[in-house]
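If your schedule permits, I should be very grateful for your opinion on a structural question. Thank you for your consideration; the sequence and its tokens are set out here:

===
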Amino acid sequence: MSLLSKLVIKGMQLARLKDRVRKNDLNQLQKYSLPLPPASVAKTVTTEALEVNGSKGVWLNKQNKWNGVLVYLHGGGYIIGPLKAQWQYIARLVRATDRAALVIDYRQLPQFPFPAGLDDVLTIITHLQENGILPAKWFLLGDSAGGGLALATTYKLRENNAPLPQKLILMSPWLDINMSNPAFTQTAAADPMLSLAGIRQAAAEYSRQDHLHNPFISPIFGEVHGLPPLLLQVGTAEIFLWDIRKFYLKLIEAQVPVQYEEYPDLFHVFVLFNYLPEAKKAFKAQVEFLKRSNSTEGKPT
């Protein structure tokens, strides 16, 4: 791990970041969300708002959709987002790949538990597909809760016999909302961003009365056969590590093409911290993964 990453982690620990997040109520956390890109991002890309039957999103560099579309679902525990760092991340990826992006501002807690957010994503994607706006060359990306939502979206599209994304990129995805894997305790204390209490609070609010093993809530329990190629990226000092490893093995057993990357001692969604050397490496891997054609994708790695 780089010295800079060590300093950032120490700063998070000293600031007791995950404790502050846990102590804030859901309404207070929402004030950090940015439904529109900040000015610093809007200067680097073109933007266009989208609304379909109340479901909202923002196009970035829509003029490049002929070269492919990156549909991005932000993380934030189904409570907050997109955040400034997430806007900066997807804008960098748009510029690096010369493609368009669509950031979907799905409904979140506390007002909108499952399945409101999933419904928003499906409403927009289905509309774009049925109207010939979303090209066949499209990709689905998500970090943290957005990674779980991206996987749930793919399951639903498959169930509806709709076109699937060509590839998936999942960064530190939240795959089991009820944290049923006891191994999580091995890294829970090391994770400087997420607290177990905060995760459980968000999980209870999001699922409400629905079954926690519902694969559209906890996609680790879903059927993975037939999924498109995936890139999975995770740090080894985060609470979701064990579920992500478990999911990786499930993909291998199903012979789903997967590129799996672990970054030693790195924290949850570290790739959003672009100034870190490890984040730059992970970002470069994403660009290369997106640019490779599916015909060159091999067996699970």
